[in-house]
Amino acid sequence: MKFGVRKPNLKKSFKARTTGRLKRSVKKALIPGYGKKGMGYIKNPKKAVYNKVYNKTTVDLLKPIKPVTSPKKMKARQPKKTKFHYDATKSEAVKHVLEKEGYSPDQYTTRSPRRWLKFIAIILGLASWGALFGRHPNIFLGVFYGILAYTAYQKSKPRINILTNPKTEAIIPTKSPVIADENVVDRLPTSTPNISYKGNDAIAPTKDNMDARNLRELVPPNIFDLLWFFNGPYKNIERGTQTFDNGFYSFEISFQSEPSAINVHLPIVEGTTDQKIGYYPTYDKLTSVERFTYLKWLQDISQSIDISYVFIFYYGLERFLFTEKIEQAVEMIFELKKYHSENQSFNSYSNDAILIAAMMAERPDWIARLNPRCLSAPLYATIKGAVTKCFSTHEIILFSKKVGWINQRYIKNEPQKFEANLALCLKEKFGTIQFIIQEEQYKEVTDSITIFLANYSLSQESRFSELPDILSHPDIQSSLYSLLQEAHERTKLQLREERKMKTTE
Questions:
Q1: Domain-wise residue ranges, the chain
Q2: Is 0.85 topped by the overall pTM?
Q3: 391 by DSSP, 3-state: which?
Q4: Which residue has the higher pLDDT, 314 or 185?
Q5: Ranges for the TerB N-terminal domain (predicted)?
């Protein structure tokens, strides 16, 4: 394992910003889960661990001068919203940032400088000078010490510290009023009975401003019932673990923090912004203007908006799939798909989520509302078989390539005749026009497929659960293959007879 300074490679660096970047963007659009955090540990654990240790034990000298193009890295390099990393002497810059976020002067303090870091910076600066101009100069070691000295000096400056969890009414500035529909019916979540206002939360909600504490009056009831609240009068977030078992297989869902949970104490300022939020969005990390945009969008989810806002709401819907509100959550996911289905990533995640919900609730009608050709064939077959215990003729044709049937000639050119002949084959062999699946076959499967959930606050095991690949069962593969082959031969014979009749006429 290498320690110290990395050797720069300008050729690889240029390639990563041109060809490599294009390839990654294409793969991210086509492959669900590609580029997501934690996928490296699944695909190649050894390499992922090596890279993690390598990044911790080595330093990139060119990092300070490299341009940051990734939205994720740009967001990571921005100062945190709870601590503003500006020199306290630059009062105008500090004041501008704080006022933009909606804070008043009595809601932040100046943190004392850490003088011991300045002492360390001096020592490292002398070491850097010695390494560069000593008897045995070492340019790499000198630059390395110099960077450490500069970092320590910057951290030794005084900082502006935002008071934690401000709850005063002044934290939520009021500008143009947002008037809600007077006909909206108030309805509280079933999981938060006996709601009361305590302490600083005793401010009665009004319709005079966009306040997260009166969302009940601002958004439609079906939207409000599917929101998670981190605190305040509607707090309904809980941590825990649930296990699902339907006799075929089981998996565990572990609830942790929730990226869609609304913190009612964060400031909300009316405004507009064209800046993209980026990957892994969360309500807490939005700016005050972005929070206004998100809450405003919840009033009408059919509006066109940056897909990251849609994902914030969608994360919470995935969590509701494992509660008594599963039916409401599924219907809301279908509603989102009506207006935001142009995003491939959202389509892929939402399709998987609906399949999982249909399996847990045993609702084949939810599966029927999806387009089978836009789904993963093995996952669709596994869940459809678990819910209905059978495959239709249309589904057998859909799975034909997965069971080894390559000859698609009559499936493409004569789909109606082929499906009718396949139904006859099923009727003769099983006495029904459906292919029956036995429960024991699920327990005999050795191969597995992975289900993907978008909510990254779930544990790794919950987001990427393993299910048996029913199409990999040897008996099912051979049975479906023989049915397709027999239907193919019957269709060929039928077409030959039709051609003979035409020639005799």
A1: 4-67, 83-162, 172-192+204-337, 377-505
A2: no
A3: strand
A4: 314
A5: 256-374
